[in-house]
Amino acid sequence: MELVNGSMWPTIREAMMCETHKYVAVVNNFADTEPIVQKLQLLGALNVSDLHRVHKENYEERLRRRGDKFPPQKEPDSETKLVSQSAIAERLKSRAQEELQSLFPPDYDAAGQFIDNKEKQNEDENYENEVPKIKKLLEPSQMRPIEEDLKSIKVDENRIVKPSSGLTSGALQEFIPATKLKGLDDYILESDPYQHYKEGSEFQVRVEPESTIEFPEHLKIFAFEEGNNSRFPSPRRSLNGNFDYYLMDGASILPVLALGLKPGDTMLDMCAAPGGKSLVALQTLYPQILVCNDSKLSRLHHLEDVMNEYLGNLDHWERRLFLTNKDARAIDDENVYTKILVDVPCTTDRLNLHTEENNLFKPSRIKERLLLPELQTEILLQALKIMPVGGTVVYSTCSLSPIQNDGVVQMALKKCWEETQSTMIVKDLYEALAPLRCIYRFGNDFGLKYGNIVVPTPKHNWGPLYFCKIVRVN
């Protein structure tokens, strides 16, 4: 991780290793809001909407004093990009060398032999012809059918137990050579996800700056200031029976803000459980229709419980709120949803650091973890396909992995162009997020091409969370 996150990694690691991290309190507009707001203010919490407004006004005033008509655009840092690309290349090389070494005895330095050969060939006139051979050796090994080897090998038939010999105890102990390896089709190399990242790296994506993020008028979110890790009390029921506020990681509100919800929008949350982001969207009072989908029925039941506790009787929401249980890749309602949130399943880096049960990094779930980028790409691709012209998709994860973040966005946009010829634009939110830097630490020096990432630090201990805004133009 230090190769990817650079000098910030020790700080990020320190924050993520803390078992408790910061939350924000989202005021429930379907309860008695005034006493709730007063209660949170007495705790010393600050209204994030007020912070955003004040810092936005100050930021715009500074621009006017400098005489800038528009906010300065983020200049691509060539040095940062080179460092990021070289880090990924170094990671790929290291992974390939590890797999190569696994084919040799422990005391044999396979990678070192090839490096020594490379240094000797620097003085050789035919060095250029040898470079492809060295690169080929460092590439992940290619699987081939076992039948090819069976045609060329010579089997010692003296060790084969023939039916005519009878099933004696001695015959049962004879060695019988294997003719087929079970499970070989399901085997996945650790380097496969990195190959997935490299596949779409040459595809060009149009990126346009977006200067502002509007904070919805009715959305009331409270947080403690920088360095204050105080905890909010557990939510309580108000006079009408609904809970007074919802506690969630402070970074999780940003994908909803990035959607840019407007009154009358039709919104789809493709992977909605446990329901926090969907609830924030409803607290804006903007969506005319909200569809909350999740592929797992148990998680959908949990989401339903959350909605019941904060919205009251869901019968009153029968024409505005819909809960569906489908594979997100199978949702085919084209040109219906103006705003789509794609909060995909991911490695949830912080959670897996502090839980043993169902941990995605345990040996029994290696295959599932390695296939995550492929699943994430398919879900995002489906969202892009069903989005109408002028619609918005926001993709988000709770991971620091560049493959699950920018890598998935790149691959999904590439496949969408190849399959539909649709033109998508990625919105650069660097300047739009400027008023929120008072409470968030953004990883602007991570060499990201498309999205933004909130990184945890001891003073701003929420996240990690990556999000990317995509708009369809034709």
From TrEMBL:
MF-aspect GO terms: RNA binding; RNA methyltransferase activity
InterPro entries with a match to the protein in the record: MeTrfase_RsmB-F_NOP2_cat, MeTrfase_RsmB-F_NOP2_dom, RCMT, SAM-dependent_MTases_sf
Sites where the protein binds S-adenosyl-L-methionine: C271, A272, A273, P274, G275, G276, K277, D294, D327, D343
Active site: C398 (nucleophile)
Comp. bias intervals (Basic and acidic residues): 60-80
Subcellular location: Mitochondrion
Keywords: Methyltransferase, Mitochondrion, RNA-binding, rRNA processing, S-adenosyl-L-methionine, Transferase, Transit peptide
SUPFAM superfamilies named among the record's database cross-references: S-adenosyl-L-methionine-dependent methyltransferases (SSF53335)
Major location (coarse): mitochondrion
Domain SAM-dependent MTase RsmB/NOP-type, chain residue ranges per copy: 164-473
GO annotation, biological process: rRNA methylation
GO cellular component annotations of the record: mitochondrial large ribosomal subunit
PANTHER family according to UniProt: 5-METHYLCYTOSINE RRNA METHYLTRANSFERASE NSUN4 (PTHR22808:SF3), NCL1 YEAST -RELATED NOL1/NOP2/FMU SUN DOMAIN-CONTAINING (PTHR22808)
Protein name: NOL1/NOP2/Sun domain family member 4
